[in-house]
Amino acid sequence: MEERPETELISIPATPRVSTPEILTPSGQRSPRPPSKEAKSSNAWTPTSFKSPRFLSPIGTPMKRVLINMKGYLEDVGHLTKLNPQDAWLPITESRNGNAHYAAFHNLNAGVGFQALVLPVAFAYLGWSWGILSLTIAYVWQLYTLWILVQLHEAVPGKRYNRYVELAQAAFGERLGVWLVLFPTVYLSAGTATALILIGGETMKLFFQIVCGPTCTSNPLTTVEWYLVFTSLSIVLSQLPNLNSIAGLSLIGAVTAITYSTMIWVLSVSQQRPPSISYEPLSLPSSSSSAFLVMNALGIVAFSFRGHNLALEIQATMPSTFKHPARVPMWRGAKVAYFFIAMCLFPIAIGGFWAYGNLMPSGGILGALYAFHSHDISRGILALTFLLVVFNCLSSFQIYSMPAFDSFEAGYTSRTNRPCSIWVRSGFRVFYGFISFFIGVALPFLSSLAGLLGGLTLPVTFAYPCFMWILIKQPTKYSFNWYFNWILGCLGVGFSLAFSIGGIWSMVNDGLKLKFFNSN
């Protein structure tokens, strides 16, 4: 479009083109559409491109004030995002009053948890060099892919990708996106909930033993019964309606995670090391079995960086305007969160392996602390540490279960065209909690489950974001950006296959060992 002469710039079109406003969410927030690439690069005249003519340069000129006000209005109104009315009924997008603080709480709660406790198990199979190297590479890699997801949340003007599956459908296509992403994201949510039930129930059992003491005469609950207690508490807390409503729980989970992570590695390092400790990587007689162990260990490292399946969901809870896009507070909160995540994961992995070496039990550093130092550390400190772990597991269960709750309610609302009643919503969450409980009872192999989870869900964190960046942003072919993302994506898919095989082998091996011990 040809540029208009300067003398015509003061004329205002009678009917400027304005996009259709979106449906307001209960929080009353709207999301203006960011400008397209063409609008940024083009010099064509638009209603928002008013520039004051030179003869209107005095600041107090009334016409100039009118033009400036009109420009700001058109910028706000002309970039509105069209939202699905159904989003106002679903837990993730029901409230859009989030901010950078909420983003930090949610990311920290999702990023630090029980997976840090099994990191020293991976070091027992990898050793010092490969353990530290793999942990560092995984941290930098996942931080880059998190930045990609934050940028792609509003990559297309007029559209917010509120869920990981929606972004995958936009990149890979409607059907292929669902096939590639739906299973690993649902498996990550359900698998994490199952693992949380395992570690939470075991920790509650240890907490009871510490508080009760050796002279306790009461009949203690069995491990399965402790799993049931933890599941019941999680179901009660899961009745909070949406993602923003659990911000307080996420804050509790973040604080408890930082506290108990620091307490565990400090207590482990401050005590005398076992006399038979060794730092040689564990191995089996056959080279193939040792390779499977290494693959499972790398899967544990990959699983320690979870939470990318929640990044878009967390960002969807924030208001977004043309001048103040949601990616700014989201990335600000994520940077703070992942600074503290690094301060938790690296010390607990390195300090735990230094304190216990290859004597580390398969359950992780928490079990090692109780087994080796339960008589050296005061019962009060041990009990506080275990109680903090329970609080963190209860908080993490909520945020990782939210995508599953959202999927259940999306299926219901799409069929009935009405929001879920409180009884239907409660029924979905009770059903999900007890399904996770039964899976946990059937597969009580925490370290093996962590390796398998890390392998199967690795593309969600390390591979798919790189491919989606190429397909949506379309960097110049054969450029550094193009090659870099293709290489990272292909490596992520290859590692996923290898780590999954290692996790399956480890689970089968643990199952055979359990069957052998029970038979004897």
TrEMBL record:
Keywords attached to this entry: Amino-acid transport, Auxin signaling pathway, Cell membrane, Membrane, Symport, Transmembrane, Transmembrane helix, Transport
Broad class of where this protein is predominantly found: membrane
Region (Disordered): 1-46
Keyword Cell membrane in record: yes
Gene Ontology molecular functions: symporter activity
One GO BP annotation of this record: amino acid transport
Location within or outside the cell: Cell membrane; Endomembrane system
Domain of life: Eukaryota
Transmembrane region(s): 117-141, 176-199, 246-267, 336-357, 377-401, 422-443, 449-471, 483-508
Annotated family: Belongs to the amino acid/polyamine transporter 2 family. Amino acid/auxin permease (AAAP) (TC 2.A.18.1) subfamily.
Protein name per Swiss-Prot or TrEMBL: Putative amino acid transporter, transmembrane domain-containing protein
Organism annotation: Lupinus albus
